[in-house]
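Below is a complete specimen:
___
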Amino acid sequence: MSSAMNADVSARLAWPDDAAAIVRVQLASWRRGFADVLPAAELDAIDPDELARRWATTISAPQDARMRVLVALERADIRGFALVHPSYDPDADQVRDGEVGEFVVDGEHQRAGHGSRLLQAAMDTLAADRFTRAVWWIGSTDDVLRGFVTESGWEADGAHRELATADGATVKQVRLHTSLA
């Protein structure tokens, strides 16, 4: 067997010490995915240490006990992360509706199973927190992510929104949903 087939891969709840690695994956993703929306200077102005402190706080003292950060691992290296929490959409029931608030797999490690493991861990976590439905806002032009999510059983529910950036650009998103029951 090849060493790739024997790789130690997993997904687990994040630890505060994971924050710096989460930021590394997050910022690389933003540079790839938002280069046409966010100016490079704005991304360069982000303080990675401050962002890591925020992630460490989210992991160790979340705003809601059902807000959780999960990481995808290859050996001890973080290859992706997900943030799950109650849905705060105006039409959501915060007791029954959970949300995948963020989901990122390092671009250099995609298509290696990390996304599938991370998504399954996120769904298991939401179900364990007794959510019966999950929603996920996805960029309207992110066909790769939308394909991955719909192949996993998610469907569009007709909701859409536009988020404004600091310089006035907009990011259009569509909402997908799935049953956890």
In short: The radius of gyration is 16 Å. The longest helix spans residues 19-33. The chain has a mean pLDDT of 90. The first strand starts at residue 9 and ends at 13.
